[in-house]
Specification:
alpha/beta, 6-stranded mixed beta sheet
Length: 259
Amino acid sequence: TQQIYQELTQAIPADTLVIWPESALTNFYQNVSGFLEQEGQQIAERHGGFITGVPWRAASDSGVTYHNSIASIPLDPGDGNPRVYHKQKLVPFGEYVPMQSLIRGLIPFFDLPMSGFTPGSPQQPNLTALGHTVAPFICYEILYPEQVATRSHDADVLLTISNDAWFGTSAGPLQHFQMARMRAAETGRWLLRGTNNGVTAVIDHHGQVIDALPQFTRDVLYSEYHPRTGITPFMSTGVWPWLLLSGLLIGLGFMLRNK
């Protein structure tokens, strides 16, 4: 896997933001830090940026925790900017096991490796890359309008990485992609989307697809994005006024239909 990503990345030109998808390497950063830091340094020497999904192991006085994370590499470039984001909204039975004290040990399926992640804090700052502030979202976090709107206030661009292999050839990855496009339109920000086998794409601030790769294709998507700032009406109000308006319109429709 390392060789595949390394060969694909070597051909990418200078002054480029390189994005690898969710869990690009199925190993903790702490175990493959040498490889990732070397890749990040080589990209930095070409005046580029490097962001990748990677599992994370953190040790503290209270013990060891594991996270599904996204990191801007090199991890410590000396500028003091945030470099790691831990996923907040975890997938039940995929990334954590509800009531695990009762279930683990009884059903072998729930003892799979990397199925015991800890959610990250909602107060985590956004990432930085190539002088831009990047609002990161891992997998289905991009489906939460409130979370995306909140993190977008000081962000120049949205970034989401995903592993849609769970869904196979079903409509799931395409539905996931459609919902991600809505977040770009709601926040007026460009969205960069990198996936393992789903739809990798660049989406503009109107939610329109600028460039995309087809599913199940090993390739590099070359495109561009434009940093944007400001606050949209949706970012100011949140989702509830729009839900209320939708409910009123539906209710009005039923009233008119029954007359």
